[in-house]
Amino acid sequence: MHMFVRPLGWVLIACFLGSCASSAKFTSDFGDFQRDRSWFRPAELELHAMDAWEMRGRIAVRFDDVGETGNINWNKSIPEQSIRISGPLGVGAVLLTVDALGAEITDQKGNKHFAASAQELLFDATGWILPVENLSYWLQALPGPDGAIEYRVDDNNRLVELRQAGWHIEFGEYKEFNGHQLPAKLTAREGGLDKTRVRLVINSWEWL
User: Fold this and answer.
1) How confident is the chain (208 residues) per 10-residue block, as mean pLDDT?
2) Residue 111's domain is classified under what CATH number?
3) What predicted TM-score, i.e. pTM, was given to this entire model?
4) Dist. CA 77–CA 69, nearest whole Å
């Protein structure tokens, strides 16, 4: 039986909206969000202590009736992060780089474009709606830095679904990567609908 709990220790928290959704805890004001956020703090401290990592996997994005797939290689460190997506995207490979000054995208021809928002820049280049800022946290079964959260955990106190910033994220499978239990599959739906859907299958994690 799934239960809503306050996770303790290093346990990664989780939530899934299903038949028990009516009992989910939802916070809408800043004070409550900060209190809920503290439940995730042990996991954040553990993972953020390893401040540079590389994730490799597969990505599938659906918008309206159009679906595309590709390979994804995500590198993150304290000063910046880079996301390389390649495969049958219709636009070829792209490299998205994000730092404190904004975002830059480079297409397969070497053309560069700049914007303040990584999500906006990626959409302009590929037509993909990808919540870049929060997704790097969701990959680790953690909430993003902003917005109220709603979540549910499974019998092993692992995050199975999260609601944040207008997205519903489901964590379908966990695996051990270098001693840490992390999601191996996740699906993010904007508004909880299939109109905009992002699916990720994580093949490997490496801490640098």
Assistant:
1) 33 33 46 61 67 91 85 89 80 86 90 91 84 89 80 81 91 88 93 88 91
2) 2.50.20.10
3) 0.77
4) 26
